Amino acid sequence: MKAYFKYKSDIAGLGDVSETIKATEKISAAKIHSLKVGVKQLNEYIFELERVLMRVSQFYFDEKNIFLKKGHQKEKAVVLVTSNKGLVGGLYHNLVNFLINDLDKYDFTVVIGKKGVKYLKEDEVALDKTFLNLSEYVKHDEVSEIADYIFNLFESKGLNNVDLIYPEFISLSSQKPKLIEFLPFEFKTDKEKSEPSSDTLGFPMFEQSKKEVFKYCIKKYISVFFFKIILESKLSELSARMVATEHASEKVKEIIGKLSVSYFKERKKFITKTQIESFVVHKVK
């Protein structure tokens, strides 16, 4: 009898877990759609910004801009992009292992997200700077604060380069660690492209100077590129979570199925026993 009620209680409990998992999966799916729209709009903005920068670079291009050339030091920094939530399968473990394999190359380690900080501290990795308060819905001001820190670190320390490691979004079912050299930033002018720009007519007037306009535009362009990486990382996180919840949902269904079989067996035993006891009592009377 105890087993009968225990199975019944376990099945009810797992049913609640299943509903929670399904809700998490639906939330992730909705956020993925919203993020895809955001990334698409950001790409359009980046295209326009790049077009303006290309136009400016036809009249002025500063090859010595601090963000376009390596620093005078040999020191390097790495920025690891994770998040504050789990339930993403092995996504962040893979990122952390990817970093640890090449950790000796870097002199400064910056981590975004509580998960990355947790896993690296478990491996006793010293961290120079952490950003733990990135919102679930990515905000421009928060990302700008991180970007400004990276810019200042690169400039003030005269670093050779700053690398970024983040989860690249390939598809809903596939994400992988990716390393890019973020600073110095590689920016190709029209002169370096095989086809000349069609937008070359006219001579613009610059307010302020051409140098200041170029400096502002290149920094803005790099900042927006960094924002895109953060959005792509969030897209990878949500995709991994949706896949993980799908697998968890299937596993819970499987467990409920097995428990249901045991439950009905115990229920049948319980009913049969009750009927026999009732029959015996009736016979005695």
Explain how this protein is built:
The protein has 2 domains: 59 residues; 200 residues, 3-Layer(aba) Sandwich (Pyruvate Kinase, Chain: A, domain 1). With 285 residues, the protein is an alpha/beta fold. Helix 4 crosses helix 5. Strand 1, helix 2 and strand 2 form a beta-alpha-beta unit. Helix content is 59%, strand content 12%. It is elongated. Strands 3-2-1-4-5 form a 5-stranded mixed β-sheet, sandwiched between helices.
Query: Total strand count, please?
Result: 5
The CATH superfamily of the largest domain is ATP synthase, F1 complex, gamma subunit
CATH architecture of the largest domain: 3-Layer(aba) Sandwich
Q: Which overall shape is indicated by the principal axes computed on the Cα atoms?
A: elongated
The share of residues in helices is 55-70%
Which key terms come to mind for this protein?
single chain, about 280 residues, alpha/beta, Pyruvate Kinase, Chain: A, domain 1, 2 domains, five-stranded mixed β-sheet, 5 helices, about 60% helix, elongated
Topology:
Layout (H helix, E strand, L loop, with lengths): L1 H56 L18 E6 L9 H11 L6 E5 L1 H9 L6 E3 L8 H18 L3 E11 L2 E10 L26 H75 L1
Parallel strand pairs: 1-2, 1-4, 2-3
Antiparallel strand pairs: 4-5
In short:
The protein is of the alpha/beta class and 285 residues long. Helices cover 59% and strands 12% of the residues. It has 2 domains: 59 residues; 200 residues, Pyruvate Kinase, Chain: A, domain 1 (3-Layer(aba) Sandwich), CATH 3.40.1380.10.
